[in-house]
Amino acid sequence: MKPHITIVIKPTLFCNTDCKHCYHTPEERVPGNISLERVEKIIRLASEEYQTAWFIWHGGEPMTLPMSFYKDVMALEEKYFGKDSMRYGNTINTNGTLLNKRFMAYCREKKINIGVSYEGPYNNILRAEDLEKTLNTLSNKENMYSVTSTVSKETVDKQKDIYRYFREKDITVSLSPVIGAGCGKPYVPDTDDFVNGSIAAFDDWLHDSTSRVPLMPFYLYIRNYLGDPTPSDCAHTSCLTKWICLYPDGSLYPCAKACPKEFCLGNIDQVGSIADAFQSEGFRNILVGSIKRRDKCASCDIFKFCNGGCSIDAYYENGLEENGGQSCESYRRIFKHVSSEIQRILDEKPDMDGYNPFVKDAVIGKLINPKTISQ
Amino acid sequence: MSYDAESIEKLTAMYESQSPNAFIAFSMEGLPQDNQHAERFDKGADAEHSELSSCDYCCCSDKGYCNSWGWHLCCIGSIVVLVACCCYVTDGFFGAWPYWPF
Question: Which of A79, A114, A216, B11 is deepest in the core (most CB within 10 A)?
Fold first, then answer.
């Protein structure tokens, strides 16, 4: 058995909102739900081929499906992986507009993480909904959840404000730039502006000694620099063969992020195993292109941290085989800033009380166990 | 270097060899640890879990609404009767409704 796979399931491409930056076009976002048979098959195959699996419910808007669908899904996961077996887990990524207390309670009972897309005070730039009450309820009920804030060209210099907004509410937030696919192209932030805004947010968080939340993805960058595995940072973890995405029509893709059809791995109805999907012509296409790009990255001093970055980002920027696009450039500059700050702390060993508790814990942990420092 | 003639097995091995640390680390992560859910669950922070079962009636939909038109009518009828009873007991809501006939 292979160790682990992350399975992104899009139970529908339909969405009840109309976010301006969506990488699915309006023509794609049509009603139509995945069949339970297809979900059962991928759960069964994952349980047979992998020790563990993490299921991410994505879309479209996954909450447009009734709660009974998720009850059936959880029953299938328990059937194939074993109830409370610790072999599987779930995250639902949602726009939050259809979350109700009943579903929140269900998520607590089934230990389902919730990821909410929300930009706090700047939410009206890309979408229209106000999620204040929903987030308050999630916090009051102690659900496990986090927020992803999409950074567009309008909010590129507001990343620090966004962090401050969620920090006051003790909500973990991840800052993620608009992807230049589908409807998102006009909203992609300028690279220089994005880097400057990210560094300002990181510096604020780094010296925020009373913060109780990690700021993503910078906290993952720190852990990566210190030698810890960060498999959830999909763009920088050599994701091919570790992630797979199932669409409502049964199509399989290596990624959930606006994968073009040339990378289709086949259909769940036709494959006999997940390994079969990774033998497809579509997988060969993305694999060859990614290898060629990573060959060009090999001499870069941070390649061992970024692992060549995200193939889909590269595809929409300069082409799959080319590095140096916006995502590459911004990661390189942000990571260099983050790593130089951490290296300075490691070298100078300053009083850590003035630093963020997450940074303090990560750095002190590595100072206690120096053999695990990758530098 | 041309990769087009290579088998997918060899290509996959090449891809993994480009970033061996990512795959070593991945193996180490094989079995994910339980997340904070368990801790919160164990310490009883979710004592209100009973709200799940208490809502599991046939009259309720998954969204917490009435499950059918029949239940809608039943609900509306109950509200009308309740308002009428209140109106009767308070003698026309303490005179606020002057047309109360009783």
Answer: A114
